[in-house]
Structure formats: structure tokens, C-alpha cells
Amino acid sequence: MPTRREIVQGGLLTLVFGTGFALSCACHAQAHRARHKYGCVLSPDDATLFMDERTDARLYISGNEPMIPRSGDRDFDLALAHTLAAVSEKLEALPSFAYYDDYDGANAYATPKVRMNNADGTVLFGQRLLSRLMSGTESPEVAVAAVCAHEFGHILQFKRGLDRVVGVGQPTVKRVELQADFFAGYFAGARKLERPNFPAAVFAMTQHSFGDNMVNHPGHHGTSEERGAAIAKGFEAAYREKCTLAQAIQISTNYVAGL
Ligand SMILES: [Zn+2]
Fold first, then answer.
1. Interval between CA 19 and ligand 1 midpoint (Å)
2. Strand, coil or helix: what is 123?
3. Residues near 51 by Cβ (< 8 Å), separated by ≥ 6?
4. How far is Cα 236 from Cα 248, in angstroms, rounded to an integer?
């Protein structure tokens, strides 16, 4: 018998994941899964329960590694695998990537916690978030890439200690989140230099859509305008100014310090 949650999840997830994905039982986890920090960063301790709810994880290095689980859309899987490999290369961060059961709210996370040798941490992408983005009309696969690039941006922060530099003493996670948006924009700019048809504007639209106005809440990620602007700044650093990653790190650190 399916649980009520599985029935509620229903349609889109079935469409997206086909039969290759086994929904994990979250009954016990629902009582225990908790986070002690805000933003889409999970501490290694908090990450444990989320990672227990994930699919197999893997590194995307060449882009030819198969997605697990397969979405049922071969073109989407292939495009996402290639995008993940490209983000890893541009941001010099190689996390393992997995989907997880985001029954408690559509979301994606980055954590420095490692469960694979040689990985720079882990990116967890919620199945509900995937379904939501894939139901969009404007290049949905690029919207998924935008969220992935933001999460890989957090992995870059962990690797270089940037999250501590830009987040120290801050009442909200805004500066850390907007620097991750900047890095996502940087990837979009670098990608567009290689592929002129790449719809980089979808990155700005996607992150704009996730803005919030809870400016005094510790979990404030930035307003829609701030999130779109951070993507645009990162895009310009790569596309117009041809900045190296080291230069982009410096520019983004200064940029968010001024917000
Ligand atoms: Zn984030």
C-alpha cells in the first residue's frame, strides 16, 4: 500500500522519475530531520539524515556518467550530466550529486559532508523541486541547471573558506547566498561564451523567483531583485570581463560585502 505521502506526491514525480526511483520511507525521518542553520547549506551533522534519504550519488566529471535515477527523459538526463560536469570545471568544485526526498519542502542543499572519495562535498537536489522546475515553460532544464550551479557555488565556498569570510558576524545568510548566486551567474557567463545560444537569462529569472522579503529573518536569501542582480554581476564577470575564477572570487567577495 502506498503511504499518503506517496499518493500526494503522485503524478509529476512518477512522470519525472518513472519506475527507476524508489521513494524512500520518510516516516521515521519526518520526526527527526531537523536543521540548525538557515540557508541551503547543511552542516555535516545536519546532513546525515538528509543523506539517508538520497539516491545513489556520483561525480560528474566527463558529463557522460549516467544520471541516477534516470528521469525517463534521455535528453534531459544527458544535458544535466553535461551541465554538472561543466559547472564542476568552471567553479573548480567537484561534489557528488544525488536527488533526495524533499517531502518537507521543495529544496536543494549543499553540504561539505563527503560520502565519496575525492569529492568536494555533496549536492542534494530535491525531487519535488525538480518536478516544480521541470513543469516550468521557460527552458526548464536550464532552471534546474541554475539551482545546481548555485549549490556548486556553495561547494566552492566551502573549499576556499569563503562562506566564513563573507558570512562572519552577519545576522542573515544573505551574503553567503548571494555569493553563491554570483558564482552561478559566473558559470552562466562562461557557458554562454562557449555556447552563444545558451539561455543565460533563465538563471537570473530562476533565482529571482526564489527571492524573499523576510529581510530580518536569519534565513533571508536576498530579495528577488538582489538575487537577479547577483546572477547578472557574476554573468558579467565571466562574459564581458573574462575574469578568471580567482578574480571572480575577489569581485564577488567585495560585492556581497557592500550589500
Ligand atoms: Zn544557497
1. 30
2. strand
3. 98, 100, 111, 113, 115, 122, 124
4. 10
> How much distance in Å is there from the Cα of 151 to the middle of ligand 1?
6
pTM of the model: 0.86
Cα 180 to averaged position of ligand 1 atoms, centre (Å): 6
Ligand 1: centre distance to CA 3 (Å): 31
What is the whole-number distance in angstroms between the Cα of residue 176 and the centre of ligand 1?
A: 7
Tens-digit pLDDT string for the chain (259 aa) = 434 333 333 333 333 333 333 333 333 334 456 666 667 888 888 888 788 778 888 899 999 998 888 887 888 999 999 999 999 999 999 999 999 999 888 999 999 998 777 899 999 999 999 999 999 988 899 999 999 999 999 999 999 999 999 999 999 999 999 999 999 999 999 999 999 999 999 999 999 999 989 888 888 889 999 999 999 999 999 999 999 999 999 999 999 999 9
